[in-house]
Write a structure and sequence with these properties.
Layout: E1 4-11, H1 20-23, E2 26-33, E3 40-49, H2 52-58, E4 68-69, E5 73-81, E6 93-96, H3 106-109, H4 117-125, E7 135-137, E8 140-144, E9 154-158, E10 162-164, H5 171-192, E11 200-203, H6 207-218, E12 224-228, H7 231-239, E13 243-247, H8 253-261, E14 265-270, H9 275-283, E15 285-293, H10 307-312, E16 316-319, H11 327-339, E17 349-353, H12 358-366, E18 372-376
Helix pairs in contact: 5-6, 5-11
Length: 377
């Protein structure tokens, strides 16, 4: 197998001025892609979602090694198999997962692949789990974004970054399952292990937050309360099922939530990636309740916590990464729930765009105008 060329959205500097449609931090470049090596797969990308995790790299909140080919929430078709990959076939439909798991480190052995140590180290270096990089621009080597680099026509990824999916699922919908759905639904189902009749409050209604609302509804949580600054997102949350809403800009937003839940939520999920939102979520949590955050603020962000209430009220503050998921187990389950009509993930899609419009798409995401835009190829 010989190298090939492909288009990719490449980030070469952090913190570009907005609007991105003018500054164009992502350049669409023709790059060289090495063939898949041992344990790797070549995927023809068919759809890739625009996520706040991408945006936080572009704006410099979460620095990554540059230059980097961005994109991590995607679905596509297997085109080539590297040596040793025997459990996939050419033509299989797959979703990409942005946290590869080695299967051998302590967290993986404990059934917590979202915390895979070699996977986290590879992602931090901009490499594949299998080692090294497969993207080049002339003599320059490009870094991989979270082992995926999916804003591209094709990607070479570790087999450990892929989950085979139902081919009846549209690629645009399938793309959302690898990040927004795994993270949002998983925070409810796996991290919280919420039971029917327990109250759930979701603060921040982006793609992950709205997926958490769907997960809470599917789990039988009651009441389910959605909190955000944007009235259109609150309206969308209400349209998903029996959901009550509170506008976070209201001065008494915390009091409203506490009144609706009879003293605070059993589980309150912070999905905005903001310390201020997490502080509000903490205040919305009942005595003995649990505050769960899957938001990713800048690395230097810190949360002041009243330790007396933490102890005296037996409160729990917990993080959730990729919804504490086991991708090969959870993603097919969530797809099955979607196909049964119990997890209407398609309601989270705001539209599709071509790769050439990706910078303007991130402007819309930053402005809060969309939940999930999907680049289609």
């Amino acid at each position: 197998m010989t190298p090939m060329t492909t288009r990719a959205a490449v980030l070469r500097s952090l913190g570009a001025a907005r609007p991105y449609a003018d500054s164009r931090p992502l350049s669409i470049e023709t790059v060289t892609l090495d063939p898949p090596g041992p344990g790797e797969v070549l995927v023809a990308i068919k759809a890739a979602g625009l996520c706040h995790s991408d945006l936080s790299v572009i704006n410099g909140d979460r620095p990554r090694p540059l230059p980097m080919a961005l994109g991590h929430e995607a679905a596509g078709v297997v085109e080539q198999l590297g040596e040793g990959v025997t459990d996939l076939a050419i033509g299989d439909h797959v979703a990409l997962v942005f946290m590869p798991s080695c299967g051998h480190c302590d967290p993986c052995a404990e059934g917590r692949p979202a915390l895979c140590e070699p996977g986290a180290a590879a992602n931090g270096r901009g490499e594949l789990l299998t080692g090294g990089r497969r993207l080049h621009h002339g003599s320059e080597t490009l870094n991989h974004h979270l082992g995926c680099s999916a804003f591209a026509d094709r990607a070479v990824v570790s087999r450990r970054s892929l989950v085979k999916i139902d081919p009846a699922l549209s690629f645009a919908e399938a793309a959302l399952f690898g990040c927004a759905v795994l993270t949002g639904v998983g925070a409810v189902v796996n991290t919280a292990r919420i039971r029917a009749g327990q109250s759930a409050v979701v603060v921040g209604l982006g793609g992950v937050g709205l997926a958490s609302v769907l997960g809470a509804l599917a789990s039988g949580a009651s009441p389910v309360i959605a909190v955000d600054l944007a009235e259109d997102k609150l309206a969308l949350a209400r349209s998903l099922g029996p959901v009550q809403t509170v506008n976070a800009s209201d001065p008494d937003a915390v009091d409203q939530v506490r009144a609706l839940t009879g003293g605070g939520g059993d589980f309150v999920f912070e999905m905005a990636g903001s310390v201020r939102a997490l502080q509000a979520a903490w205040k919305m949590t009942r005595r003995g309740g649990t505050t769960i955050t899957a938001g990713l603020p800048p690395p230097d962000a810190a949360l002041p916590v009243n330790v007396v209430s933490l102890v005296g009220e037996e409160r729990t503050l917990k993080g959730s990464y990729i919804g504490t998921c086991v991708p090969g187990r959870d993603l097919p389950r969530y797809v099955a729930l979607y196909r049964q009509g119990r997890l209407p993930v398609d309601r989270l899609m705001s539209g599709t765009i071509p790769l050439e419009d990706i910078n303007a798409g991130f402007d819309r995401l930053h402005a809060g105008e969309v939940v999930r835009l999907v680049v289609t190829f």
